[in-house]
Design goal:
The complex is a heterodimer of chains A (496) and B (319). By secondary structure, chain A is mostly helical. Chain A has helices spanning 2-12, 15-33, 39-50, 55-80, 89-100, 104-138, 142-153, 163-178, 203-221, 239-261, 267-281, 293-309, 311-317, 323-334, 343-346, 348-379, 384-403, 406-424, 429-452, 459-462, 464-495; strands at residues 180-181, 188-189. In chain A, α4 packs parallel to α16, α7 runs antiparallel to α19 and α11 packs antiparallel against α12 (293-309). Chain B folds into two domains: 2-125 and 248-318, D-Maltodextrin-Binding Protein, domain 2 (3-Layer(aba) Sandwich), CATH 3.40.190; 126-241, 3-Layer(aba) Sandwich (D-Maltodextrin-Binding Protein, domain 2). In chain B, strands 1, 2, 3, 4, 5, 6, 7, 8, 9 and 10 form a ten-stranded mixed sheet that branches. In chain B, β5, α6 and β6 form a beta-alpha-beta unit. The longest helix of chain B has 27 residues, at 2-28. Classes of the chains: A mainly alpha (496), B alpha/beta (319). Chain B: Keywords: Signal. Chain B: It comes from Halomonas dongshanensis. Chain B: InterPro entries: BUG (IPR005064), Bug_dom1 (IPR042100).
Chain lengths: 496, 319
């Protein structure tokens, strides 16, 4: 295996390949940083360009773009609260407050380092464990996915702020997720006969609206003064910070890899779950959402690890683990290759070159992100009266381009107003996203599991993985609900 | 009275326009860039099909220009709607799969077969029933198990009213096997569940699963075809079992129903030229779509769509 990998490195190091790889990283940077332009769209646009290339080069380029977009979504999320990709939405929760405090450089540094570490952990897992992990992923079926979604949803109880708001938000997210044609029965739900709603409400209009648009509204309408950023100095290697986020990084990278490998869910879910778990295990959960460094480290290491993890089932089984990998699968077929169980054997040269390419890409992210981010931080000196409209324009174009739908643009603007109003009452927007991302998984996997067992609910308990996940969820929920009661009781006895 | 006269004259004038000018219309066609609507998301099989055909079609039409627009929402219904409601001048082409007729039968697609004209079908990926060969040796074993365990067999496929689902319904209806359908988000997820032994089988088209067949991890045990396939001579067909099912995942191109005949003919001829070209055939071979003759002319394909619509409507209603 090591010699395969070194062979792959040799291919990557050819001048032309290295040049193409570098350009791919830059294209990915730009696409990822623009809200709405996601890895999927970039890969589709560039696919015809790769027809003229050797398959090995073509797939190094496509996977490098993929890796770079997942990374660079964090830049606009941290600087303007306008997540460049759905994967980066969690990063905005703590990244943007840090920018508001004048710590943009620190926040970006944490983001870059966490991304690169997560990406490297994911790549190493990809290189070493692909065949093994793939067979593990196959043990996951509907009951397990349902249990995982439940585990994610229970974190509402640990999120800071008022519990009732958290519950309302999660319920609202779950509700929005039910809109559209129900994939299991084909019935239209809450579509009011409008074809635009048949496919459901997309994640991008909601995220861009709730976060980016509402922020622009807030700063314009409320004339909110913000600290002018004189100079943003990005420090990537900062020992005290690294010590602070070390545990978070290891846990989140691991969560990211595992969730990424599961074929049913992608990097956005990984970022969500690892953020939730970080809040849950933190000694200071109240600091999250107000600029906690761990709040950046968790989603960024997890989403990059998951992006690499999602390639495991693609290479080992021919089953894509996310939207972008599904497009890459299509690209393999267009190049006349057949990803599937024999792919690792029949195309091992290609695969190891792609692995080696991804390995290098993570270092390129460390190396090139600074000058690239500098371009964006310069924009911070532009007066907001000019920058605000520019952000809105990017949001409109980006949202439109996802499905070529003007309806989505109106939807996004509507969510912008909603987000603006909700923030006035300190409503935790994160709970809405939690419900929206995990809702479809929880609902359809529950129903799928029940139709697998002909309606017998014991299927969730008779399968070891789902039973343990549900037990952990119940236990953690009990602990978070009971712990404050015990604390209060203790305080009472101490006072008495 | 006056109004009636006006309408009559207008009608006559329009008739004159459409009859008199259509020949030269076809000569000038295309007079502006074509819009190739794809009734599916970017990167899927239908999208790849449209993007591969695009440059060849441009050439076959004498250097026309065109743009590809993906309209995946509502199983592609928006693309069909834009085609049916747009100008009937043949400049808007709708690249769609069998989902067009299955979603119509399910009541999810408001554009009926009378509102569009198929130009041609160019691909037909053969449907088949797949199992994990360690679980069932062949179709007889599958049948025997199903008879012993009625209602316990779980067959996966993509969402409700998808080509996978109607193929399943058609098979269950014809064979009388008592089995359940479990809809997944994608072919990949259904496949993963068969590989992992979580469900028993999947009904889907052949080409995406070839690599699993080669690796011996999945096996087709029944193909939806009138003849046995050359590559799988031991796999029985639906027709030899007495079930008249030849479903496939078809990919075809539609225009507005009132498009002048001359333009429809011109486009159909151009597409045939594309289909017969070496370049297209090598693509079809590369993506393994050569198991069945892909080409079906406008008239033939319309007939097939109408028959399928009738069958699928009944099956989905009964379900």
């Amino acid at each position: 295996m090591l010699e395969h990998f070194i062979g792959g490195l040799a291919v990557v190091m050819q001048p032309l390949n290295l040049l193409l790889l570098t350009s791919a990283v830059f294209i990915g940077f730009i696409g990822g940083a623009l809200p709405g332009i996601s890895g999927v769209i970039l890969v589709v646009i560039l696919l015809p360009v790769t027809y003229g290339m050797e398959p090995t080069t073509a797939f190094m380029v496509l996977t490098a773009i993929y890796g770079a977009t997942v990374f660079s979504g964090l830049i606009t999320a941290i600087l303007y609260r306008a997540p460049g990709t759905p994967e980066a939405v969690m990063t905005a929760f703590d990244g943007y407050p840090m920018t508001q405090r004048g710590e943009a450089g620190k926040a970006l540094g944490i983001g870059v380092l966490s991304s690169a570490i997560g990406g490297l952990v994911g790549t190493v897992a990809l290189i070493i464990f692909t065949p093994m992990l793939a067979s593990m992923a196959l043990r996951f079926s509907s009951p397990e996915y349902f249990a995982l979604a439940v585990l994610g949803l229970t974190v509402v109880a640990s999120l800071g702020g008022r519990l009732i708001f958290g519950l309302i938000g999660a319920a609202l997210g779950l509700f929005i997720a039910t809109i559209g044609i129900d994939p299991l029965t084909g019935t239209s739900r809450y579509t009011f006969g409008n074809l635009n709603l048949a496919e459901g409400v997309g994640l991008i209009p909601v995220i861009v609206g709730l976060f980016a648009v509402s922020e622009v509204m807030k700063r314009t309408l409320d004339h909110e003064s913000h600290q002018p950023l004189k100079k943003v100095k990005i420090k990537i290697f900062d020992l005290p910070i690294l010590r602070q986020i070390g545990v978070t990084l290891s846990r989140s990278s691991l969560i990211g890899v595992i969730i990424g490998i599961l074929p049913g869910i992608g990097a956005s879910t990984a970022a969500m779950v690892s953020y939730s778990e970080t809040v849950r295990w933190s000694k200071h959960p109240e600091k999250f959402g107000k600029g906690a460094p761990e709040g950046i480290a968790a989603p960024e290491s997890a989403n990059n690890a998951a992006a690499m993890g999602a390639l495991v089932p693609l290479f080992a089984l021919g089953i894509p683990g996310s939207g972008t990998t599904a497009v890459i699968l299509g690209a393999f077929i267009m190049h006349g290759l057949q990803p599937g169980p024999m792919f690792m054997v029949s195309s091992s040269d290609l695969i190891y070159a792609v692995f080696a390419g991804l390995f290098i890409v993570n270092f390129m992210i460390l190396l090139f992100s600074k000058p690239f981010i500098a371009l964006f931080t310069k924009l911070l000196n532009v007066p907001y009266s000019a920058l605000g409209p520019l952000i809105i324009m990017c949001c409109v174009v980006g949202t439109y381009s996802v499905r070529n739908s003007m309806f989505d643009v109106w939807l996004m603007l509507g969510f912008g107003v909603l987000g603006y109003l909700l923030e006035k009452i300190n409503f935790p927007l994160v709970s809405i996203i939690l419900g929206l991302v995990l809702g479809p998984i929880a609902e359809s996997e529950l129903r799928r599991a029940l139709s697998m067992s002909q309606g017998d609910v014991s299927i969730f308990l008779s399968r070891p993985i789902s039973a343990s996940l549900l037990a952990v969820a119940a236990l953690l929920l009990a602990v978070t609900l009971i712990a404050p009661l015990i604390k209060r009781a203790r305080r009472k006895t101490a006072a008495a | 009275m006056n109004n009636h006269l006006k309408h009559l004259t207008l009608g006559l004038a329009m008739l004159g326009v459409s009859a008199g000018v259509s020949a030269s219309d076809a000569d000038d066609f295309p007079s502006k860039p074509l819009q190739l609507l794809v009734a599916a998301g970017a990167g899927g099989g239908t999208d790849n099909f449209a993007r591969v055909v695009r440059p060849m079609l441009e050439e076959a039409l004498g250097g026309a220009r065109s743009t590809v627009i993906n309209l995946p929402a509502a199983s592609g219904a928006l693309a069909h709607q834009r085609t049916a409601n747009g100008a009937a001048d043949g400049h808007t082409l709708d690249f769609a799969s069998t989902t067009f007729v299955t979603s119509l039968a399910a009541g999810q697609n408001p554009v009926g077969l009378d509102q569009v004209t198929p130009l041609a079908r160019m691909q037909s990926d053969v449907m088949a029933l797949f199992v994990n060969p360690e679980r069932f040796e062949d179709f007889d074993a599958f049948m025997a198990y199903a008879e012993e365990h009625p209602g316990e067999i779980n067959v996966g496929g993509t969402h409700t009213a998808s080509p996978d689902h109607v193929a399943f319904l058609a098979l269950r209806d014809a064979s009388g096997i008592d089995m359940n359908f479990i809809p997944y988000d994608s072919t990949g997820n259904a496949t993963a569940n068969v590989l992992g032994g979580n469900i028993d089988a999947t009904t889907t088209s052949l080409s995406p699963l070839l690599s699993y067949i080669d690796a011996g991890q999945m096996a087709p045990i029944l193909v939806f075809s009138d003849e046995r396939l050359e590559d799988y001579p031991d796999v029985p067909t639906t027709v030899e079992n007495g079930w008249d099912l030849t479903d496939g995942n078809d990919r075809a191109i539609f225009v507005h129903a009132s498009t002048p005949d001359a333009i429809v003919e011109k486009l159909e001829t151009a597409l045939k030229e594309v289909y017969d070209s070496e370049e297209y055939q090598s693509y079809a071979e590369r993506v393994n779509l050569t198991y069945r003759e892909g080409w079906m002319s406008s008239d033939e394909y319309r007939q097939r769509l109408e028959n399928n619509f009738e069958l699928y409507s009944r099956l989905l209603q009964d379900d």
